[in-house]
Design brief:
The protein is of the alpha+beta class. The chain has a single domain, classed as Winged helix-like DNA-binding domain superfamily/Winged helix DNA-binding domain (Arc Repressor Mutant, subunit A, Orthogonal Bundle), CATH 1.10.10.10. Strand 2 and strand 3 form a beta hairpin. Helix 1 packs across helix 4. Strands 1-3-2 form a 3-stranded antiparallel β-sheet. The radius of gyration is 16 Å and the shape is globular. The protein is built from 4 helices and 3 strands.
Length: 115
Amino acid sequence: MTEPIKYQNRIEILQGTLDLLILQTLAREAQHGHGISLAIRARSGDLLSVETGSLYPALHRLEKKGWLDSQWKISENNQRAKYYCLTKTGRKQLTAEQNRWRLLVRAVTGVLDPA
């Protein structure tokens, strides 16, 4: 039997979802914060919008955990921007987060559409 997913509170669920979205976005290529936000929005069909007030604290938190690394570069707009990329540990965490998300989706689907 699979271990139940335990969330301490609503914030943990939201942070976990945002973490997954950021890690997945950066799995393709290094990106600056605004680019990450645009990619999430585009890939979700304009359904998900990550506000600056949520995105940058999450990026800093993930960097502190060692899942992201960053480097200052010049952006496509010719402005200085901090680009983020996944670390080796971040790639492992992405896999763990994907598995956790799939388990959560299966659980919610089971409640919404019981056999």
